[in-house]
Amino acid sequence: MGLRARLAHLAKTGDVPVFVVVGGGYRSAVHRLRLVEGISIVASPRHASVLLIAGALTNDATGTVSHVHDQMAGPRVTVAWGHPEPSVIPVQTTVNGDVTEVATTIRRLFHDVLSGAVAPEQPLLPDVDAVEWRGVGPYGHGGAGMTGGTPYGRPLALRAPARDNLELDQLPVTVGPWFTGFPPGLALRISLQGDVAQAVEVAPTNLIQAGPAGLFTRALSEPTPIRDLEMARARHHIEWMADTLEIAGVDRLAVRADRIAGMISPGEVDPVERLVKAVRRSLLRLMTLRNVGVLPGEIDLAGLGPVVRATGVADDRRREEQAYRDLGFEPVTHSGGDAWARFSQRAAEAVQALDLAGRAGDTRAFGNGEVEAPDGLHRMGEPDPANRLVSILETVLIGSEWGDLVTTIQSLDIDMETVSVGTPAP
Amino acid sequence: MNPGPLSYFLVSAFGIGAVVSGWLVFRTDSMLRAAYWLMVSFVAVGAMLIVLDAQFLGLILILMMSGEMTIMAIFMILFMMNPAGLNPMTMVHQHRTSIIAGVGSFIVLAFVGVVAEFPDRPVPAGNATVALGEELLGRSMLVFESAGVALLAVMIGAIAIAAKQGRFGDAFDGSEEPSIDVETGDRS
Amino acid sequence: MTAFGILVQVTALLSGGAYVLVVADRLMSGTGSVRTALAYPVRRLSFLLLQPATTTERPDFEAWILGPALLMALAAVGAVAVPIAGPSAGGDIDAGLVLFGAAMLIVLVAVFIFGWGPNSVLPMIGGYRMAAMVLSVGIPFSLVVLTTAIPAESLSVGMIVEAQSSLWFVIVQPLGLPIYLVTAAAIAFWGPFDLPEGADLAGGVVAEASGLRLATWRFARAALMVTLSLMGQAVFLGGYLGPVLPGWLWTIVKTLVLLVLLALAGRTIARMRVQTFVWFGWVVLLPLALVDVFVSGWLAL
Amino acid sequence: MIDILLVVAAAIFGIGVYGALSQQSFVMIMMGLELMLNAALLVAITFWWASTGGNPAGQLLVIVILAVMAIEAAIGFALVTAVYRSRKADITEKLKKLRN
Fold it and tell me: Which biological process annotations from GO are given for this protein (chain D) (predicted)?
């Protein structure tokens, strides 16, 4: 056995590094995939061997997903999971089953591609510069007009005042739509000075095709059991907590949150409360979330669910539902309006939701065109709250350090499934 | 003390390293490389100091320069016109005069160094670091303390100069855009 | 001891320590069994060796290659300053403490050029963050390390260990070890201070790295942690001094204790914001380190 | 030995002179100055090592040079920042007139 074969033999028993492009309706499923032993979901495509396209994407996504595909170091394979044919880029296999099935498929393909039974995929795009190279020499030294114009084939950075009014260069970059620190599908054009975002613009995207109508969408038109609604709400919030914990670098607690999200039952608030205690011990508030992402007062937050309730306003559609009032429902609120307040708010709402689900019995609520979903008030025929959250990003992110920018976006809980910004990029 | 062949070899090697990396500081177009070539030059001189029995000073020099050169690199990225890294940048003036001055000062100094006779009183065997410590905190305490006070004064002064709100009011009052158009002015 | 002997010793120590660190870190990540954790480093290394290196658009190749190599070299240089087995066992350098300090501060350079190399925005931000971090904790780090030289009246690590024969410096200088561990975690960009490699940067300085480059970088960082633990136990926990067991075994045991402690902190505490960190370094750690210096100096008079 | 050291120091000094005179960017000029100080430092240690019989004042001189380097860097960067703030100038050509 040659060295290569020996290495492959050792490597294929290890974790499979997977980069996931999350499409419509599959965010929750990806949380469950993370719990499977032997699958490791990585943050950068450079580290991955398997590209998993989970859920439906629009045809506009072909370009960006191809980029992600080509960035992978290889040997690479692509798997589609619940992604309709024809898929946005050529895939090795399509799986429509549950988490176990996709995990088995991923493992099998990883084995095969390492041992050579399956040929690794070739790049999809030609390897050319995004902008034509016009410098002289390997690094473009010595070209003319180097104190102005467009050396390097790209315009020189523009100057703009930094926080203390010193005029410095700005680096314009586009981050997303599959950057793991942002909600899937969100791309931002950011002008960076060092690690500070001086200007932010949401890039026009419409990449994610909405999955089948969820429980809360159905509750707009038909009365739905409170127990189901509240369980879904609790699961949503706990999975959101897992994402936040992962970005904050406490993967251990993120895994725990994912585990809890997979096995919650009505009335059982204990595991969630213990998780919140563990989060407190991890100093998350002190280290990362305190005073981050405070929204300016002039922004109208009404109807934005936990985001507005975290500023101390008891704005909740459930108060007006007789069924909820009968259960003695009273909205939880937190004060401060920073990322930590939103975290505590969602944690408390998850506990409250589990408690309500335990006591609700078979009572039904909503069905009259309005519903209080985990991310805020949904109205029949009106855009989801996520659209409003995306539209305020450009104001609230200006002047944030990179880490705060990511924390703020995460704390707003934006789901790009129902958001479409501007015209789709050509 | 008679330096052995190993010392000769090390001093020559580090010496060549220090000169070459010093030269490369002004030959590269990357700001990062310029700053770190300068650091390499300092590290080579630090290594020569270590060979010359000044262990402590050599190491302190290396220690200081790693931080200082990163600050240099960051300032270059801040103040030079293109932060994107490896972009073209040849920015020199009075080139010929500078070359003459540089070569001239090298020739004069090297000539003096080679021709002049210096007393031969080498460092005695023993711990030079201990001697330095006793000097610093004994006879020359005043010098040492003055250096400390000077550094403190500089820290305060530097912040005062660089801060937006200066001693004479806001830095923006009375400022004007530069009058010379560097894009077209060919003066090198 | 010959130069070759020291090389073998340092290599063995750093590799073994790195293995333990990676296994401990994996165990604390919350997934998988002990069995998979024990095999994890080997399997992971095999995979990375199979993975081809990727490149980016017009990277600074020399800097990108030099980063991991420099980091590894610095870990080894720092480890050389610490005597492993006993006073006469070699590896003792006159101004060893300063050598160690210089090597640890140059880590900044290694991380900065590694982040700069790929010509990509997320790694570059990682490099900037490292600069902000090390410039904030560099002074307290150097101060607490050098303070141990005051009671020992020597900058040689061997002499500092010998000076602890009656009482370890962790007791004599109670502020020393905690500050050292915090600043050491920051210099190895580990644990709550892994800002240059944070998840909010999709891996930061390693976001564009793969294959051998990533493997070298990961190993070098683990080796750096071992070096920092090694020095920590030597200057605060009495190094090779201890009853019954031979000196080298004491060194290894104490190093592993600090290593596991750092690994645990890394997995249980959330990542600190950059702004908070800079504040923490200048406003909390620096004054505490100065108190440490003054108290030790006063006691030594 | 002393010849080698002094020639090396002279070469570094010469490069420093060239850099300080030829560069347009303030930061690059400072690099030239730093190189000149680097040479001074090497000369000081050379004489201490070869000709003073181990007089620790020679090492003290190096400490003073190190302090000067730090001061030069700090004041230099502060001035660069101040000038840049008020004139938007980062190279010497933009500062022909030092007065407004």
Answer: ATP synthesis coupled electron transport
